[in-house]
Write a structure and sequence with these properties.
single chain; 23% strand; alpha+beta; 235 residues; 3-stranded mixed sheet
Length: 235
Amino acid sequence: MPAVPLSHVAVRLRPEDNVAVAARPLPPGQEIEFNGGTLILADRVGLGHKLALRPIKKGEAVSKYGQIIGFARADIAPGSHVHVHNVAADAFERDYAFAATARRRRPRPSRASSRATTAGDGRFGTRNYIAVISTVNCSASTSKYISDKVRAADLLRNYPNVDGVVAITHKQGCAMQYDGPDHRQLDRTLAGFAKHPNVAAYILVGLGCETGQAIHLVENQGLIQLNGRKKSPSS
């Protein structure tokens, strides 16, 4: 059976991955060219299943797509089928930082022009939408009703620079640890909508009994309040 390059028969996204995912059924004895050598499959590896790319010692993490998916129950030889028979789940520390090393790229100079405005943090947008942001799933319907009412009443005809009122809804905000990781992640997500460079203004709609309180979102994400306590630097 002729050897084939790994990229022709399997997917390996990250250099630290010690397994690859079969892109088609692979028979036992299949020879695969990898990293200057040849892997010989000891077992059949079905479509979507994993094969070991190097020796994995007992207790060592199994990494797929740059993520730890389990730990070896026993020593796993290169070319072996990697599945529940030789991989077990276990607790380990996780880093939830996302794109922490990403760098913002400066836009290239262009002769094109627009009436974009700055968001104050290096981003530019048109600031032509109003967001109705639900802090919890329980106020999602109310947020939708508000945006629907504005459209039905044709209120925006008097505001030609406003292109629409958008409801931002989700299924979170209740039954989570107050100020815990999930709560803070929800705050960051909702604040991302509020601070979007295409959003000129926003309304926070809460219920009152939920974990995801509007005041927690405002104070922890530095959102702007138009009641005299905080003002936008550009206002």
